[in-house]
């Protein structure tokens, strides 16, 4: 199994969202005219994320060495997410709205963290103020928005860079296309999303899991 979604990848410093998230400091204050444009960009990205009620997408997760795994992502706001990997990766990452859980069925191990303490907190935690901890990055296209989110006072939470593309059919007119997370050990994880679907009914049972310490069966 390619163990790409390790504890360091989840809790790492550099990727606070891309759906993620070198320890980055917030940019030095720019002139007021520049700040106003950046603030508008941050506001649009934040509103687009918070406008998602439910979402499903395919994802490809890769590390800096080019190794990759595929799977299905399910998101339900606030705070619930499920990364279900393909049959060749016997692992599950799931959040029930308060805790982020990594389940490794090969070694029958479960690890858990508060969602606010992980790079994915920028995506999942409504209390994480992207407009306070984020900065807009320049891009080569006006159709692409890039936001870097980090908390300089808590570098252990990581830095995450979220990439959005304009899509009138997506909530808020922006679609989350990818994110990059980089941790204190310089471990980088990139997640790219395709085939987005919005607004479907998703039961809360989707964000539960079978505990491998009691059974070796894969999650349902």
Q: What's the layout of helices and strands?
A:
Layout: H1 7-11, H2 32-50, E1 54-63, E2 68-76, E3 80-85, E4 91-96, E5 99-104, E6 109-114, H3 121-124, H4 130-133, E7 134-137, E8 144-150, E9 159-166, E10 174-182, E11 188-198
Antiparallel strand pairs: 1-2, 1-11, 2-3, 3-4, 4-5, 5-6, 7-8, 8-9, 9-10, 10-11
How would you portray this structure in words?
The protein has helices at residues 7-11, 32-50, 121-124, 130-133; strands at residues 54-63, 68-76, 80-85, 91-96, 99-104, 109-114, 134-137, 144-150, 159-166, 174-182, 188-198. A hairpin with a 2-residue loop joins strand 4 and strand 5. Residues 1-34 have low confidence and may be disordered. It has 220 residues and is mostly beta strands. The two termini are 19 Å apart. Strands 6-5-4-3-2-1-11-10-9-8-7 form an eleven-stranded antiparallel β-sheet. The longest helix has 19 residues, at 32-50. Helix content is 15%, strand content 37%. The chain has four helices and eleven strands, in the order ααββββββααβββββ. It has a single domain, classed as outer membrane lipoprotein receptor (LolB), chain A, CATH 2.50.20.
CATH topology: outer membrane lipoprotein receptor (LolB), chain A
Radius of gyration: 17 Å
Question: Per the principal axes of the C-alpha atoms, what is the gross shape?
Answer: globular
Uncertain ranges: 1-34
* Secondary-structure content class: mainly beta
CATH superfamily: Lipoprotein localisation LolA/LolB/LppX
Biggest β-sheet: count, sense, barrel?
11 strands, antiparallel
Task: Note the total helix count.
Answer: 4
In CATH, the architecture is Clam
How many β-strand runs? 11
Q: Write the H/E string, N to C.
A: HHEEEEEEHHEEEEE
Overall domain count = 1
């Amino acid at each position: 199994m390619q163990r790409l979604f390790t504890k360091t990848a989840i809790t790492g410093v550099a990727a606070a969202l891309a759906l993620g998230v070198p320890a980055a400091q917030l940019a030095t204050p720019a002139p007021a005219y520049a700040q106003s444009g950046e603030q508008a960009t941050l506001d649009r990205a934040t509103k687009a994320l918070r406008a998602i009620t439910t979402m499903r997408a395919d994802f490809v997760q890769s590390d800096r060495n080019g190794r990759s795994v595929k799977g299905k992502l399910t998101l339900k706001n606030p705070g619930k997410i499920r990364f279900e990997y393909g049959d060749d990766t016997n692992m599950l990452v799931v959040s029930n709205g308060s805790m982020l859980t990594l389940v490794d069925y090969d070694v029958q191990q479960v690890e858990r963290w508060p969602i606010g303490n992980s790079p994915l907190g920028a995506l999942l935690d409504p209390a994480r103020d992207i407009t306070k901890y984020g900065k807009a990055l320049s891009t080569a296209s006006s159709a692409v928005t890039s936001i870097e989110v980090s908390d300089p006072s808590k570098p252990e939470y990581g830095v995450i860079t979220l990439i959005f593309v304009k899509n009138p059919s997506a909530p808020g007119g922006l679609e989350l296309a990818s994110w990059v997370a980089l941790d204190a050990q310089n471990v980088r994880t990139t997640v790219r999303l395709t085939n987005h679907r919005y607004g479907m009914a998703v039961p809360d049972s989707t964000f539960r899991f079978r505990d491998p310490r009691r059974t070796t069966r894969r999650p349902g």
